[in-house]
Write a structure and sequence with these properties.
mainly alpha; 0% strand; Type 1 dockerin domain
């Protein structure tokens, strides 16, 4: 019985209780303020810097309105000289504006896909 009283009155237990209280308090504050913030995911933030105002998503080589693995495949084939993309595919898949589908465009598309 003495050891339980000693434990309950120990500075270690008070420190643990205070730490727990602070952790729950910080969690509650985070939940309360999360409603006032407009969070943006990493993929949305990355896409925002290549999407033109009301324009198509650059990198969307197949023109389906979304950046996906099919776009990466088209750009890969073009960059490696395995296919001749159409002018529209080149325009849509070109993420750096050089007018060509290169490994740089492919790397950019793969990076953006990894963030989704």
């Amino acid at each position: 019985m003495t050891s339980i009283r000693t434990l309950l009155s120990s500075p270690l237990l008070r420190s643990v209780a205070l730490g727990t209280f602070c952790a729950f308090g910080a969690f509650a504050v985070g939940i309360e303020t999360a409603g006032n913030v407009d969070p943006v995911s990493h993929s949305q933030a990355a896409l925002q810097d290549i999407v033109g105002a009301f324009g198509p998503v650059q990198g969307d080589a197949n023109g389906n309105g979304a950046l996906d693995a099919a776009d990466a495949y088209i750009v890969f084939q073009a960059a490696e000289g395995l296919s001749n993309p159409s002018a529209d595919q080149t325009r849509r898949g070109d993420t750096d504006g050089d007018g060509l589908l290169t490994e740089h465009d492919l790397n950019r598309i793969l990076h953006l896909l990894s963030l989704q």
